[in-house]
Amino acid sequence: MLQRGGCRLVHNHPSQGSLSQADWSLALAEPGIAEIVAVNSGGTTFRGEVIDWPGLHAVVSGLNAIRDRLEQVASNLASGRPSEMNVILRLEPLWSHLLNERLAAKGLLDYEIMPCADDATTLTCPRSSPYLADALARMITLLP
Predict the structure, then answer these.
(1) How far apart are CA 108 and CA 110, in angstroms?
(2) Which of 13, 70, 94, 107 has the smallest C-beta neighbourhood within 10 Å, fewest atoms?
(3) Under a CB-based contact definition with an 8 Å cutoff, are residues 113 and 44 in contact?
């Protein structure tokens, strides 16, 4: 049983990314949706539940702009570094995951990821490169 009642919306994400601005907008517009689950083609499952409705409502309209900015900063930081650019390209579908983790840390969401083996490897790649770890830390400062 879901904590606050309501239904669980389960759908696929062929883009491979996490729960998106569109998903959160739908949850805010349809109070009967208690939880959203998305599964990508590799089998990674992203699950989220809105905790702070007014707080999420205040930031949801800007999530795509923040995600686009993350991609631009990542691309700029990796310019001229082919090995890092390859990792950045693999991380691209997971930018929404970074946003959702940040929103959860702020208490707006209950959020979790259950990664498949490939996505789990991708998520650990930035930690293997000091350059990418620094780039990721800089990008996180752009999050709300």
Answers:
(1) 7
(2) 107
(3) yes
How high is the mean pLDDT of the chain?
79
Inter-residue contact 142 to 66 (CB < 8 Å): yes
State pTM to two decimals. 0.76
Q: Which residues fall within 8 angstroms of residue 37, CB to CB, at 6 or more apart? A: 8, 9, 10, 11, 45, 46, 47, 48
Report the amino acid identity of residue 64.
Answer: N
Q: What angle do CA 40, 14, 99 make, to 5 degrees?
A: 65
Which tokens hold the place of 117? 């083996």
Q: What is the pLDDT of residues 68-126, one digit of tens each?
A: 777 777 777 667 766 666 666 666 667 788 788 888 988 999 999 998 888 777 676 65
Written as six digits, the tokens of 6 are: 């309501």
Give the DSSP H or E segment for 10: strand 7-13
